[in-house]
């Protein structure tokens, strides 16, 4: 009976093991099954990394947003401080605007003169005054020969009699000229250079070659006065640049002195802010924005001064151009020039404020 019961139960090895060993083996088997492998340990936890990256991104975004909000707040506060002192702010803006309007206005006028004279470069003509003993036939043949040259676009022959009639009409001394014994004017050939001669040097070379013709008394280039005008405008332009640099330095000094006074007026506030741990960059920031607002306001006043001056001069200049059968009118500052003016004025304001802050703010320290 007992042996039959034993055969129906566990095997002899199983039955021979103590219960503690069997229990430990069963526990050990369960522990081995639940223990992770090395590869599983090496695998990163995707959810944990995603959450960490999202947290870092949100922290960066939050710090950037707070930085932008801080700058926006300080810019508004700096502008409101200027508005609360309208008289002194307007006086500073007026000084900066007048200083900037002088070189800008002269530059605009020079640009108009250069625009007006740019079309005269292509209208160069060479006038050939022939000798007095040259016949009409020889002069006409020379004009035909010149018109066939590749460097000549057109050669127009004007006889002595035609030149005298034209002079009588234009000068208004027709009755006086009728008492002359002979015609004092020579034959003239007006030569228009080809379009391939785009530079003044090439036109001068053509003039020298035409003056070497035997029956030509004198070859005159009708563009010499335009060259003199270009030389004068270039000289004036350099003077405008020099004046602009000097006035820009004056703007820097004005803004720097204004920011220095603002620093002195807020000395106690700066000391208190530094006592609570504010950095130099935080203390410096409002004054830099004040310099930017000064520069922007001065640039806006300079823009309006230049536009008003050009509007005042446009009517008489247009009337003068109409007398010379021209439709020329003054052109003011375009969008690019206006943005350039405002950018330069703001840059001058920021640089002036930065120099003043760097020099005077470091001397204010809590005792």
Question: How is this structure best summarized?
Answer:
With 367 residues, the chain is of the alpha+beta class. The chain starts with a helix and ends in a 7-residue tail after the last helix. The protein has helices at residues 2-8, 12-16, 19-34, 38-42, 46-83, 86-118, 136-147, 160-171, 174-177, 200-211, 224-265, 267-275, 280-323, 335-360, and strands at 126-130, 152-158, 188-193, 216-221.
Written account of the structure:
By secondary structure, the chain is an alpha+beta fold. It folds into two domains: 182 residues, no CATH class; 99 residues, 2-Layer Sandwich (Alpha-Beta Plaits). Helices cover 72% and strands 7% of the residues. The longest helix has 44 residues.
């Amino acid at each position: 009976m007992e042996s039959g019961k034993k055969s129906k139960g566990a095997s002899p090895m199983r039955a021979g093991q103590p219960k503690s060993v069997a229990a430990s083996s069963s526990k050990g088997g369960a522990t081995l099954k639940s223990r992770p492998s090395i590869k599983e340990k090496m695998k990163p936890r995707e959810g944990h990394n995603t959450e960490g990256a999202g947290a870092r991104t949100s922290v960066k975004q939050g710090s950037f947003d707070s930085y932008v909000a801080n700058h926006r707040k300080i810019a508004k506060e700096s502008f409101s401080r200027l508005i609360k002192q309208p008289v002194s702010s307007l006086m500073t803006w007026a000084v900066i605007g007048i200083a900037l309007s002088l070189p800008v206005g002269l530059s605009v006028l020079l640009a108009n003169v250069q625009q007006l004279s740019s079309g005269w470069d292509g209208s160069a003509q060479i006038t050939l005054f022939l000798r007095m003993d040259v016949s009409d036939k020889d002069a006409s043949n020379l004009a035909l020969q010149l018109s066939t040259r590749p460097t000549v676009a057109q050669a127009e022959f004007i006889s002595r009699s035609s030149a005298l009639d034209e002079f009588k009409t234009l000068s208004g001394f027709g009755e006086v000229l009728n008492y002359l014994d002979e015609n004092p004017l020579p034959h003239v050939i007006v030569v228009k250079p080809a379009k391939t001669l785009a530079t003044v040097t090439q036109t001068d070379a053509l003039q020298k070659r035409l003056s070497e013709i035997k029956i030509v008394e004198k070859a005159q280039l009708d563009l010499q006065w335009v060259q003199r005008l270009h030389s004068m405008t270039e000289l004036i332009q350099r003077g405008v640049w020099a004046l602009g640099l000097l006035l820009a330095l004056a703007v820097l000094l004005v803004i720097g002195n204004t920011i220095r006074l603002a620093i002195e007026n807020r000395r106690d506030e700066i000391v208190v802010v530094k006592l609570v741990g504010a950095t130099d960059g935080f203390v410096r920031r409002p004054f830099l924005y004040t310099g930017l607002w000064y520069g922007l306001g001065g640039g806006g006043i300079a823009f309006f001064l230049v536009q008003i001056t050009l509007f005042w001069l446009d009517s008489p200049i247009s009337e003068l151009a109409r007398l010379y059968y021209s439709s020329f009118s003054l052109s003011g500052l375009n969008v690019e020039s206006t943005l350039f003016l405002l950018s330069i004025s703001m840059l001058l304001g920021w640089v002036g404020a930065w120099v003043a802050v760097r020099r005077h703010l470091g001397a204010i320290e809590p005792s």
